Amino acid sequence: MADGRKGTYPVAETVAPVVAEYARRLPGCLTAPAAVDSIPWRRSDMDVNREVLLDLHYRMLRIRLFEEEAGKLSEAGRIPGALHLYVGEEAVAAGVMAHLTDADQLTSTHRGHGHLVAKGGDFKKMYAELFGRSTGYCKGKGGSMHIADVDLGMLGANGIVGGGPPIAIGAAFANKYRGTRNVTVCFFGDGASNEGTFHEAANMAALYRLPVVFVCENNGFGEFTPQAKHQAIRDVADRATSYGMPGLIVDGMDAVAVYESAGEAIERARRGEGPTLLEAKTYRFFDHVGVRGMGVSYRADEEVLEWRKRDPLLSFEQKLVETGVTDQGSINALRERVLFEINEAITFAQESPFPDESQLLEDVYAVSGGVR
Ligand SMILES: Cc1ncc(C[n+]2csc(CCOP(=O)(O)OP(=O)(O)O)c2C)c(N)n1
Ligand SMILES: [Mg+2]
Questions:
Q1: Minimum-distance ligand 1 atom for the alpha carbon of 223
Q2: Which listed ligand is nearest to 87 at the C-alpha?
Q3: Domain 53-350 coded CATH 3.30.565.10
Q4: CA neighbours within 13 Å on the CB side: how many for 62?
Q5: pLDDT tens digits for range 238-293
Q6: Could you tell me if the CB of 246 is within 6 A of ligand 1?
């Protein structure tokens, strides 16, 4: 290169100490995925006690079962519309959401059920929305890709790839302006990281030191296009440096690793020290849409099987049992309890009425003074 930097870019002076601190506390987090496999069960001095481990497990289990049942309903043609399932990526939502209060916000994606479930979303309202019923989160008029729960700080799933970042920094700006200590987490995919909206939002967030954490769920594909064919970089986290914020890579199949890294980033934002870009390397087990998808051949079964060996929920359960945090009987009982709750919610949703035709144009756009 003309300036002789040979591809290594200096980190802005103000950010360098933060990055160094991350590197010290989370060894391996700034390296490429090759190191991801070797990340041990515990990596930092953050307090990850039994309560935290069980909390992470509970969040992941709820997502997995919600999604699997939704997938079955979709495959059986019982719910309308596209359904982008989150199975395989549960550790990311669980590890992040374990740090957030209801007053903290998040923006989600088209693959958003897991984010809301992990934030404490209501199964009944979620399934009712998937069934298009009036008791759903959006009164049945939004569907999978538009679920929001403002009381829980969930500012919305989003059918527009890259739609979340501008909303997230707006919320973060409001938090800063009002002097709250709330943090906004912005979830987006590797594909979305190519959208201009992400770059504009990242620039402003770093410039104004906004209390936001950008969480890139890098599952290696944008629809059916592998990452290597949609961007010339391997690590989305590399993009952080150009905006003046730390960029971290974390094993998105390991809820504890996500919990630790996200915790650092969220606390940093809470302290008023600005944004972080956290890239979680993860994988979706089902197809881009639905379970079996559209029959497009774009990834090898062997690749899926390799990632499935690192199933974030099952491998976590194995570790919980091995380390004596809980036993298989308790896990099975918990699974049954969550399934019972899910079945109740599905029944509730199916028995709920469709929205009345007279309400077709209500709640669908905002006018000054409120939503109509
Ligand atoms: C602005 C916009 N462009 C294109 C699409 C079509 N689309 C839907 S999902 C998707 C891929 C997104 O990939 P990524 O951000 O990596 O999320 P993932 O599906 O992998 O979770 C695309 C291109 C869209 N919904 N919105
Ligand atoms: Mg992707």
A1: 11
A2: 1
A3: no
A4: 22
A5: 999 999 999 999 999 999 999 999 999 999 999 999 999 999 999 999 999 999 88
A6: no
